[in-house]
Amino acid sequence: MSNSAGAGESGGVAGAGQDTEADNEPPQQTLPLLEGDSSEVGDASEEGAPPAAKRLKISREEPLRVQVAEPNKMHGETPAQAGLLLEDLAPPAQSTGEPPQHEEKGHGGEEVPVSQEGEEECHENGDGGHDAPLEEGETKSEKERNANGSTDSPSEGQHLGLHFTQNPQMLTGSWTEYSSLPENYLKGCKWAPDGSCILTNSADNVLRVYNLPQEIYSYNWDLLPEMSPVLRMAEGDTIYDYCWYPKMNSLDPETCFLASSSRDNPVHIWDAFYGEVRASFRPYNHLDELTAAHSLCFSPDGTQLYCGFDKTVRVFYTERPGRDCEERPTVVKKQGQSGIISCFGFSPCQSVYACGSYSRCAGLYSCQDGTLLALLPTRHHGGLTHLLFSPDGNYLYTGGRKDPEILCWDLREPGKVVFSLKRNVTTNQRIYFDLDLAGRYLLSGDTEGVVSVWDTKTPIPDGNEELLQPQLRFQAHWDCTNGISIHPYVPLLATSSGQRQFPWPGDSEGDSASDGEGGEAVMSPQEIRQDNALTLWWAGPISPATEGNQEPSTVVVET
Q1: Strand pairing of 416-422 and 466-468?
Q2: What SS3 state is found at 222?
Q3: DSSP state letter for 514
Q4: pLDDT in tens, 386-413
Q5: Buried (b) or exposed (e) across 87-119, using 16+ Cβ within 10 A?
Q6: What is the pLDDT, as a whole number, of residue 500?
Q7: SS3 category, 513
Q8: Residue 172's Cα: distance from chain center in Å?
Q9: Percent of the chain scored above 90 by pLDDT?
Q10: Phi/psi of residue 212, each to 5°?
Q11: Predicted confidence (pLDDT) per residue in 497-511, tens digit
Q12: Burial 174-204 (b: 16+ CB within 10 A, else e)
């Protein structure tokens, strides 16, 4: 994603904890502009020219360009120049028993992976679910691809090769990066939509981007070095939420950006190639005071950015940075969903999005005008912190803080819980969970550092809500595993760990209870279990040669 860590830190990256510029505006830097029509921005006009000279600098007055690149055009540094090709991300053929299907996302003319047999076809969010008439000689898959600009699911119908009959193999990670500051615990990790890199958030208010190590598929996993970030993007205060642009494609730097929201700051759009602030969205309250968004989510087509506030959702248009937005109150005439909107999710098949709030409930809304369609019953014990739709759009998974349950709701019968998944959550921290693209496996960490894997296709007796038992549990970290993310193309998992540590009363100075025999201090369990790290795991089949040489790096947890 970036030429080097140094290139990312210079230009737009401030030091950790540094305040943003006056009036909360992003730093404005002058870059050379292209001569001629601005529509040609991003086309490679000169071989070897730096990508910065090929793009217009985006300010708050200029539209944010989000066009999709042609795959045969190379813009700036790509994963290939970083030592990694997207084709190289596919596991070896002998691992899955079939040649890897890794076609590029369709941009007109290329082949698109064929959907799995029996999988329901979904339409782009916002198209109303109606099929447009086919042109003469055009197939249905081509029509859907051309209408959407790219396939909604880059690995739709693609077998990731996830195997949870055995423990995932730990490959590498990043630990030193988070050891320079005390209690610099992580707060989640998210793979980029094209799978080329991973994004993390941590307590020092810095977003970090890591490239996927190119040695992953050499099977020489003992030689994998510790990962180092290629970009560091420092916010001025506590980061509330962050998300990738859903159409992100490393072949086109114009699409490589992400959004973040932090306390007392506008929503920033960060360039994922240079670590600079491209633009900002500035939400104001009824007193015309700048207010921070508690949650963020791009619409599936990337044209809108949804921001969550207290009893309000504000919708910004991605191409129009600034303060103009659409306000959608979630409470009308004292009826509706109260509380701070803490998380979003978009249905992959219908023009519907879901909002979770700290009032312990979730609501379903129309994408067109934000009309409340259904308000799910209050079943959670804590405020919702994360939710996900199933790939077929029929189910919604919700999880809350200090709440041991992940609930699976059947949206065909709003209010019906199909089954629940138990995990150990004893913290207010946001604990993420993730679904694979086939919607079969749901993974989540917990406060004790254990990752649980559930097979959601396990048959459930008709009409009976049941506690679904995990298929596999393993000790991923010795501290809270708060983030988990499944790679979109290959059987790779990323986990992040850490939490705020509170010393026990016996740890205070001068307390004789903190002294053991012989005058040695007794360490509290929190000190022993502190673990702040980003870790990559291989969750696919292991080659026979590797199985003989590798020792298990995970611990099975008895259920």
Answers
A1: parallel
A2: helix
A3: G
A4: 999 999 999 999 999 999 999 999 999 9
A5: ebbbbeeebbeeebbbbbbbbeeeebbebeeee
A6: 84
A7: helix
A8: 19
A9: 52
A10: -70, 125
A11: 998 877 665 444 444
A12: beebbeeeeebbbbbbbbbbbbbbbbbbbbb
Identify the three-state secondary structure at position 332: strand
* Positive/negative CA dihedral, 10, 15, 21, 24: positive
372-375 sheet: strands from edge to edge: 341-346, 352-357, 362-366, 372-375
DSSP 310: B
CB 365 within 8 A of CB 374: no
Whole-number average pLDDT of the chain: 74
| Residues near 315 by beta carbon (within 8 Å), at least 6 away in sequence | 304, 305, 306, 307, 325, 326, 328, 370
Closest of 469, 473, 450, 454 to residue 556, by C-alpha: 473
Q: Is 450 in a helix, a strand, or coil? A: strand
Q: Which of 505, 429, 424 is nearest to 238 (CA)?
A: 429
Q: Tell me the residue length of the chain.
A: 559
Q: Name which of 264, 332, 250 is nearest 86 in CA terms.
A: 250
Determine contact, residues 483/187, Cβ cutoff 8 Å.
Answer: yes
Angstrom distance (rounded) from CA 510 to CA 123: 65
Spatial separation of the C-alpha atoms in residues 216 and 223, rounded to whole Å = 10
Residue whose pair of structure tokens reads 């969205």 in the numeric block: 281
Q: Residue 110 above 70 pLDDT?
A: no
Query: Coil, strand, or helix at residue 293?
Result: coil
CB contact set of 403 (below 8 Å; sequence gap of 6+):
380, 381, 382, 425
20's tokens = 């943003």
Q: How far apart are CA 327 and CA 69, in angstroms?
A: 32
Q: Token pair 């082949």 is at which residue?
A: 111
Give the C-alpha separation, 496 to 475, whole Å: 13
Residue 217 pLDDT > 50, yes or no?
Answer: yes
| DSSP conformation class of 431 | -
The dihedrals phi and psi of 40, each to the nearest 5 degrees, come to -90, 10
Residue 55 tokens, joined:
């793009």
Residues 497, 479 contacting (CB under 8 angstroms): yes
User: Residues 419, 460: contact at Cβ < 8 Å?
Assistant: yes
Work out the angle at residue 187's Cα, subtended by the Cα atoms of residues 476 and 243, and round it to the nearest 5 degrees.
Answer: 115
DSSP-derived 3-state class of residue 363: strand
User: Which secondary-structure segment (H or E) carries 116?
Assistant: none
Among the ranges given (159-163, 349-353, 362-366), the one the predictor scored with the smallest mean pLDDT:
159-163
Checking 414-417 for CB contacts under 8 A at 24+ apart, the result is: 414/364, 414/374, 414/376, 415/374, 415/376, 415/377, 417/379, 417/465
- Tell me the C-alpha distance between 536 and 191, whole Å: 11
- CA nearest to 358, candidates 327, 389, 388, 386: 386
HEC readout, 7-53: HHHCCCCCCCCCCCCHHHCCCCCCCCCCCCCHHHCCCCCCCCCCHHH
pTM: 0.70
Q: Is the CB of residue 437 less than 8 Å from the CB of residue 488?
A: yes
- Contacts for 527 with CB less than 8 Å, ≥ 6 apart: 501
Q: How far apart are CA 546 and CA 544, in angstroms?
A: 5
